[in-house]
Amino acid sequence: MHLEYLRVEQLAAPIGLWTSRPRFSWQLPAGSTGHVQSAYELVIHDREGAVWTTGRVESADSVLVEVPGFEARSRTAYSWRVRVWAEGSPDPTGWAESTFETSILDPAEWEAHWVEPEQESVRPDGAQNFAELFSLRIDTPPGERLLPTPYVRQRFELDGVPVRARVYATAHGIYQAELNGHPLGDEVFAPGVETYGASLSFQTYDATSAVRVGPNVFGIVLSDGWYAGRVGILGSSRGYGDRLRAYWQLHVETEDGRTHVFSSDGSARSSTRGPIRYADLAVGEGYDARIAWTGWSTAGFDDGDWSPVTVAHPEQRLVPFEGEPVRRVLELPAVEILRTPAHEIVVDFGQVIAGRVRFRVEGERGQEVSLQHSEVLDHDGNFFMNILGPNKDQTDVYTLAGTPGGEVWEPTFTFHGFRYVRLTGFPDDLDESDFTAIVTGSDLRVTGSFRCSDDRLNRLHENAVWSQRGNFLSIPTDCPQRERYGWTGDLQIFAPTAATNMAVGPFLSRWLRIVRDDQLPDGRIVNISPIPPQLDFLMHAPPPSYDDPILLLASSAGWGDAIAIVPQVLYERYGDRRVLADNYPAMVAWVEYQIRSATEGVAPRLAGVELSAVQRDRQQYLWNTVPHFGDWLAPSTLRGPDGSQMNAPRRTGEVVGCLFHGRTLEIVAQVAEILGHDADAERYRRRAHRVWAAFADEYIGDDGRILGDLQGPSVLALAFGAVPERLRGAVVDRLVELIHEAGDHLDTGFVSVPFLLDVLWTHGHRDLALTLLWQDTAPSWLYEVDRGATTIWEGWEAIQPDGVVTDLSFNHYAFGCVDDWMYRRLGGLQATAPGFRRSRIEPAFTSGLDDVSATIETPYGALQCEWHRRGDHVEVEVHVPSNTTSTIVLPAVTGSVVDANGHPVDPDKDGEVPLGPGSGRFTFTLETHERRNPEWHDHGKH
Questions:
Q1: Taking the mean position of all CA atoms in its chain, how far away is CA 881?
Q2: Which residue ranges form the domains of the chain, and what is each CATH number?
Q3: What domain of life does the native source organism fall in (predicted)?
Q4: How far is residue 389 from each of residues 1, 132, 134, 275, 296, measured CA to CA in Å?
Q5: Which residues pair with 863 in a beta bridge?
Q6: How far apart are CA 265 and CA 374, in angstroms?
């Protein structure tokens, strides 16, 4: 038996590790039936020898294992090895080995200076306030108002033979670094989305193969990026500054044992006369191939006409980058070149993505071609720009050098949300092979797989994955074209699905650091993180009201609660206890703010109302004193002559605020208990009980109606346990009535839709849950799929039933949260202990499907359930990872159950069959005569 999948902080052999207290993980090999670890030994070495050994530790732990007393040094390379003993075996496995290397962990090691290249200051641009958002017209072409990108180069001499070299670099702006003409790393848009005022990440690069004896040149190209570019819904520039800067340091070890340090300083030279004439993340990029430089970052390049840089002294806290960088993660060939009814040439890539296009073109010197990007065509099949607002051009412009045989280009400092690209200036003889879509995103490993006998559910799953891929770019964003904001509410809704489909632990831990950096002194968690400087006025604005929706952008229940919900999800999915500890102070500050806010007044609807003593007493437990987004975008609140996005906040904000207050209190109490803060746990748990009692008295009628009488509040109240036993049946019955009154459609908004199907499932209405899943008229998940969706839409009717295409985003992952439900209910894969150390497998054999295969790559290995219906028999195959235990539930079986060897299996009274202990492959054949509901049975045949 050989150990596999060695990881440090959930990454394989990382360099640039951000912590001095790394944690180690390994897996026992898949298919090792019955293997359970009983002990381990872990040894860490630096290049001088053994640093630390644990000795034999009697423990089954194999995920995020801490080594007490070990503290990694700054900029140090380590190797580590581990072996384990399995239960029942006296001999250990062989040693399994891997490596890791820390980044600069000690700020005193920095010798670099911030350098400002020759440049004009970035000009004010875009809407300066919300009043200008839809009235501002920008008629000046980007090439006349955006500035050329600065290039910076710095020479240095190395007088020894290099054996190891590391570059540590960052920028105000985004950058691409080179050494002697060799690009450093393969990431894009570094350093990524940052808060700047609180901290700024720097990257670590292996430069060993690029550095050489004698003269060397370090080169870096800068672009506005998120620092100074036109970002967010306002499209305004200069969010964090108007001058781009670079900062880097190179450490080279030579054969003679010396370490040489070279860093950015006043000797660098710069120019803005390079080929990238402008570049903006949202507007696009302009490139003039006629003036392209060759070898600009090499020693032989003549920089005599370049200008000196200026040394700057900004106050900036630097931290090592945490997690996986943004990379070019996939390439998609063009599917078709369309000639539209409007006589335009449009390239269709067949999939909505976030990225850009690499293309080949041949033409005359000075000929200009442009590519404009969009997610959708209009009702007639013409190019349609669905994203509105200032500086949302999504257009790249290329000026040809006239190279015989053609030339190839891909932008460097921009990305777009698109499926379709309108071409202007290109020759008529185009071929699909000339165009390739480059998908950009944080390079997250895919960990989930779902397939079934219905192609539409498969497409729905793929849509959720593609929306995650398109929006998990440096931070989790709402959409990759219009706002690109880190909406906290969107993420907390989608976090379970995100953590199922991809390895998001370090990625979301980094984002949570940004959320903590943005937390306000009074404890509020902001709705958007990082909070754009253009919206900073909201943090100091007067209390919001439902009549001033802009002020609601500051902080809200269901959004700020991400500070508790997301760490809890990461703990449940990955067994990461540290993420709880890191975020616990922020969780406490957030719930303490809620408690204070709840006691400062009454709900706006009760202002001036004379309350009894009992009513007044319970108000202190109801967080209804400030407006909230509520069940945002609940479909029925958008319809009719009075339909408005603000209807959901007005009708549900008060109730949703109270519900999330109670839920977050319970989560923080659970976290406090895990971390050993027993007094906090008891205090918050006690208040949560009082919140639920007050909620029931204030909002739930004897007929089961909850204030507002919409599906969403009923779903949340049942999901969170806010409904007392005596009223639960009535609330469930009323929810079912509301669904039937909606024509068996969902009417849930942002914060309630993740819980809708589970609430029905666990309260005796599985058929109705499946009816909603299979529903194919709006609003529903399959309505989108039937209309050709390749990602999740922002609104259920982004394309209306009459075919009208709206200006909503067609890449918004939030409603894709149903994907997690499909894994858990249709595939049956459920974690019952952190990190899937224990699991429960309970597939829905009577779901309208004949085949389901679901796999989750857990920290311990692959957990898989695959089942096939063949007439009255169901064949089930389960794979359980090593070092875990599982139970399969075979419910309501009317016939026999046998295992792979034909031996009878006797489930207990609840249908449960223990699997293990330990890993293995298990197969069963069930005889069942259950009938499936014809209302959704036929759907499952698609």
A1: 26
A2: 4-101 (2.60.40.10), 110-323 (2.60.120.260), 330-442 (2.60.120.260), 835-941 (2.60.420.10)
A3: Bacteria
A4: 59, 10, 6, 28, 37
A5: 856
A6: 42
Q: Are 217 and 335 in contact (CB under 8 A)?
A: no
Contact status, residue 169 vs residue 262, Cβ threshold 8 Å: no
How many C-beta neighbours within 10 Å does residue 58 have? 8
Residue 287 CA: distances (Å) to CA of 173, 185, 370, 391, 398: 19, 23, 10, 18, 5
Q: Does the pLDDT of residue 400 top 50, yes or no?
A: yes
pLDDT digit string (tens) for 930-939?
555 656 545 5
The answer to whether residue 703 scores a pLDDT higher than 90 is yes
Is 127 a residue whose pLDDT tops 60?
A: yes
Q: What is the mean pLDDT of residues 552-575?
A: 97
**159 to each of 180, 264, 767, how far by Cα in Å?**
16, 19, 75
CA dihedral 665, 669, 672, 678 (to 10 degrees): 130
- Helix/strand/coil for 101: strand
What percentage of residues in the chain have a pLDDT greater than 70? Answer: 97
Burial of 743 (0-12, 13-18, 19+ CB in 10 A): exposed
Q: Name the maximum alpha-carbon separation found in the chain.
A: 87
Residue type, 134: F
The residue whose two tokens read 């949560």 is 688
Q: Name the pairing type of β-strands 920-927 and 897-899.
A: antiparallel
Active-site positions read 483, 794
Phi-psi region of 858 (alpha: psi -120 to 50; beta: other; left: phi over 0): beta
Beta bridge partner(s), residue 899: 924
